[in-house]
Amino acid sequence: MCRCGQSPGRSPGYLARGSIVAFGLLVLSAPAAAYRPFDGTDAAVAKKGEMEIELQPSGRLRDQSGTSLIAPAAVINYGLTEDWEAVFEGQEQTPLSPSGPTTLTAAGAFLKHVVVPGSLQDKTGPSIATEFGVLLPDSTGSSGVGASFATIVSQRWDWGTVHLNAETAVTRDHHGDVFLGAIIEGPSTWTVRPVAELFYENEFGKQETVSGLVGLIYRVRDDLSFDVAFRHALTGGHPVNEVRAGLTFGFPLSFFEGHAARQSSPMPSR
Question: What is the pLDDT of residues 161-207, one digit of tens each?
Fold first, then answer.
């Protein structure tokens, strides 16, 4: 979800290697419920013992400072229990025009908890979740540590799904911040479903952002989805345009345990 003024606490090299590993794991993937390509999130968590990876190999961001390459951006979700997950996220940002050094930004570590199971958990009524954690410093510059707390309400109907997000935070620059967002999706049974997101964010004493996003999510099969979206925003009165494209997949960690056991077992005698 939005991490307040650019929000997993990893080194840039680690994230780059991680994206390569992620592509290699596609053929092993199990069902995943994404939350690409949005700034907000949904009131659901990864299944216990499963990893879900939301990966943007490359994206383009243009704002008042120029044009930047976002490559890669990753969110890693790990199911701790039936209703808790750990979330780690971050992205590498490289200024292109004017050129500049690559920086690890938008890094954070969070816990997400489904407080009230609902339609996203195949029950009736809205699903309600909370997410809270720390906003980690950028790899360059003078930003510090922040913290955030969010409440998410999701409801699925035959015609589509709505996710409402409300977040308060202390940013990395130690400003108060409020984020309010809404995601609307087409029917979950469609192979290609249209999606949209609107959000308002106020980083007090610094700037306000009003953002709109439209896109598509293409479900290749239950265990693999691709997404593409365009976002336009006004931040502090200046236009921001961003193209996002990525994928989401998941896998049980037991796969690796079974693979390691097979590798260590003795060869049968002849």
Answer: 999 999 999 999 999 999 999 999 999 999 999 999 999 999 999 99
- Burial class for 160, CB neighbours closer than 10 Å (0-12, 13-18, 19+): middle
Which residues lie below 8 Å from residue 115, measured CB to CB, with a gap of 6+? 128, 129, 130
Containing 220, the helix (H) or strand (E) segment is strand 207-221
Domain-wise residue ranges, the chain: 12-264
Give the helix ranges, DSSP H, for the chain: 12-24, 254-264
CA-atom Rg of the chain in angstroms:
19
12-264 fold? Porin (2.40.160)
At 12, phi and psi to the nearest 5? -55, -40
Structure tokens at 254: 């037991």
Residue 188, CB-side half-sphere exposure with 13 Å CA sphere: 12
Q: Which of 68, 75, 7, 6 is nearest to 36 (CA)?
A: 75
Q: Which of 115, 184, 173, 169 is nearest to 145 (CA)?
A: 173
pLDDT in tens, 63-100: 989 999 998 999 999 999 999 999 999 999 999 999 99
